[in-house]
Amino acid sequence: MCDPTVIAGIGAATGALSAGLGYVGQRQQAKQQAAFQAQSIAAVQRKQGFQTTAAGLELQQKELAIAQEQGKVTKQAREQLATATVSAGEAGVSGLSVQALMDDYVRQQAGQQVALTTQQKLYGLQHGLGLKQIGLASEQEILGLSQPIAQPSALGAVLQGTSQAMSGYAAGLTIGKR
Questions:
Q1: At a CB cut-off of 8 Å and minimum separation 6, what does 172 contact?
Q2: How would you classify residue 148: left for phi > 0, otherwise alpha for psi between -120 and 50, otherwise beta?
Q3: What is the rounded CA–CA span in Å between residue 117 and residue 127?
Q4: Model pLDDT, residue 98
Q5: What span, in angstroms and rounded, lies between the C-alpha atoms of 178 and 51?
Q6: HEC string for the chain
Q7: pLDDT recorded at residue 22
Q8: Closest Cα to residue 130, out of 62, 59, 65?
Q9: CA distances (Å), 12 to each of 61, 84, 177, in order?
Q10: How far apart, in whole angstroms, are the C-alpha atoms of residue 141 and residue 176?
Q11: Per-residue pLDDT reduced to its tens digit, 147-164
């Protein structure tokens, strides 16, 4: 039969080895979790960049459409003024009535330009709020991903190893006495 001290030593070594392997496993798990969090946060940040770029492109398209519409309004107003001027000249009409007609065309053009400028400002405001919303959503997503990662304690592993070694030693002595 084996010496009880040898059996106790094997039990102590087994207990200490078990605690050491548990510590190494916990460290690896914590590192993997931290790497996964970093990758997830980077993905959220990339998504935010894409969303911001898309919102900027959408605003540019809207501004271009408004600029084209403003150009059409200006061209149409010039054509109306030219047509009215020629028609009045051919009809031999002049004076306050022709000037009133011209002023009416100018007022109409100004009203359309003001409406387009207001629409452009509202698009800008909408864009700013959209960017703010994208930023807040990304922050919330990052906060959700940024959970604390439990780090294994070397002191805890040593204490656990010591406890398991002592339990293994005591079990080995008990087995050896039988």
A1: 4, 6, 7, 8, 9, 10, 11, 12
A2: beta
A3: 15
A4: 83
A5: 73
A6: CCCHHHHHHHHHHHHHHHHHHHHHHHHHHHHHHHHHHHHHHHHHHHHHHHHHHHHHHHHHHHHHHHHHHHHHHHHHHHHHHHHHHHHHHHHCCCCHHHHHHHHHHHHHHHHHHHHHHHHHHHHHHHHHHHHHHHHHHHHHHHHHHCCCCCCCCHHHHHHHHHHHHHHHHHHHHHHHHC
A7: 77
A8: 59
A9: 74, 108, 16
A10: 59
A11: 888 777 777 766 776 777
Q: Which of 31, 10, 26, 13 is nearest to 156 (CA)?
A: 26
> What are the extents of the domains in the chain?
4-177
* Degrees to nearest 5, angle at CA 38 with 37 and 41: 85
| Residues 70 and 115: beta-carbon distance below 8 Å | no
Which stretches in the chain have pLDDT values below 50?
none
* pLDDT score of 11: 66
CA distances from 94 to 36, 84, 103, 106 (A): 80, 11, 14, 17
13: left (phi over 0), alpha (psi -120 to 50) or beta: alpha
Q: How far apart are CA 30 and CA 62, in angstroms?
A: 48
